[in-house]
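Interim report, section 4.2 (structural modelling).
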Amino acid sequence: MQRIFLFLYSIRAFILFVVLELIAAWMILNYNSRQGAVFLNSSGQLTGSILHTKRNFLEYFYMGSINEALSEKNAMLLKRLENLSPSGDTTYFELDSVFAHTYDFWSAKVINNSLHLHQNYLTINKGRKQGIRQGMGVFNEQGVIGRVTGVSNNFATVISLLHTDLLISSKIKRGGVIASTRWDGVDSKKAKLLYVPRHVEIEVGDTVVSSGFNATFPEGINIGVIHEVNEGEETNYLDITLEFTTDFSKLSYVYLVENSMRIELDSLNSETNILPNDGQ
Amino acid sequence: MTGNNILKLGIAYIMYFIIQVLILKDLVLFGDAFCFLYVYAILLLPLEIKPIPLMLLGFFMGLAVDMFYDTPGMHVASTVLLAFLRNPWIKVNTPRGGYDENVPPTLLNMGLAWSTGYTFPLILIHHVCFFYLDFLGTSFSPSIVIRMLSSVLFTFVLAAIVQLLFYNKKKGI
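Predicted structure of the assembly:
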């Protein structure tokens, strides 16, 4: 017995090595299962506040482009408001109020971002206390960014569109063909558009927007512009490359959206065994 | 090892971490060349350090870096591997006449040839491990090799500059 202990003692360094590597492997597997647990990641309290301070310093350098983007968004909203507001000489019916209030919006600031790995995440400076919940969609005035995956009290982690596991239900604006956008991990400006059948006619330059089918995003938020169309090698689908409209290297302020009927929609889907066509 | 020395090493350890997560995280050349300078916090510890404290230091450094990179476990796995291999590799590389005591294995103390032979393979193993874990589950592309090699080179060159600028001969930092 004593000899066993002596032997174990003599290889203690190796045993510690194996234990530490097993802890690391457990962490990798646990995090990639995407159960949304905030466990030792950048939305932790201490990490979040350090990143927030850093971002506050750096923000001065981006002030110009942030202002420009905000004023652009303002101009767009004003234009839309002009179109929507009833003019004096027509009659205006308010339709069912259920449709009027399906989506809730929040704004937040990106305090941490990565775009060069295969699994990229963002951190934003709002969390549970500010009403952020898991599963909300994230976008900015340029287009779709990602989906909230973990929430702590004051910060939240967002799984970026630049993550090889995230599928976004999309649609080609011209013609309305439904497809899925997924990043292939190669270039942070381009992604693949999946499940478009061969018979569909597509032109380079067509816009791809969110489809509004999966209750994360409202319909019609920009995702990208079609960059290249090839015949797929082995499948019945076309091999389409799109260029993101969002510049992921310059994210500052973002908007979050939640479908207030999401729970109802999801439970209806699961009752009838329809799986949403993106990987949720 | 004196108390003063331990304090200096502790400060260096924390500085490597802070510089890594606040500055070098945003510095990726051409979208491919990463700089994981923090591995030098482990590589440049004194030669006499025992494997168990060394691995624990590597583990906590990896954990802290992972929290900021949102890559749970990946930096931990690679850094613990690096720490595990460090001492045997130093033993293999023993120059004729053995090592001087209380001299950290920096570029200035050991010379360019020894330093390259010591750090280059270890950084390569660390980076291959990290990028392999990052790349798991996606289809293979040759860019991963370019990414590994350019990152090793970038880390190595930046570390050489840092050591020339901030380290004294013999005394360490």
